[in-house]
Amino acid sequence: YLLHRGCMGIVRNEQYKADLIEKRGYNCEYCKIRRATELHHALIGRRKGVKELDCEYNYMCVCQTCHPKTDTQEVKTRFWGVQCERYGFETMIKWIKSLPLKLKPDLYMV
């Protein structure tokens, strides 16, 4: 049962990843050249127990080559701008403020 349940979670996550990559146009959002194959927690890194970070507001679609290059403040700042254009500044601020984190990131101050 546990194995089956775990596999179902993986299938669901893989489908979500595939759908988001398709929605964003397939290309890596870092290099804009190669096909995206992975999701990166671009604005706020993954945190155990904080599922609200696993969403399209926080995900950058990247290729395997670029993924290691995306953990910089410069990338966060640039991607914040992209996400504000994509979803709207107010939506992004509302998402940040809704997160169950003790310290809120100051991305929106940029």
Structural summary, described in words:
This protein has 110 residues and is mostly helical. The protein has 3 helices and 2 strands; from the N terminus they run αββαα. The chain has helices at residues 2-23, 73-87, 89-98; strands spanning 38-41, 59-62. A two-stranded antiparallel ribbon has the order 1-2. Helix 2 (73-87) packs across helix 3. The longest helix has 22 residues, at 2-23. The protein starts with a helix and ends in a 12-residue tail after the last helix.
What does the secondary structure layout of this molecule look like, with pairings?
Layout: H1 2-23, E1 38-41, E2 59-62, H2 73-87, H3 89-98
Antiparallel strand pairs: 1-2
Helix pairs in contact: 2-3
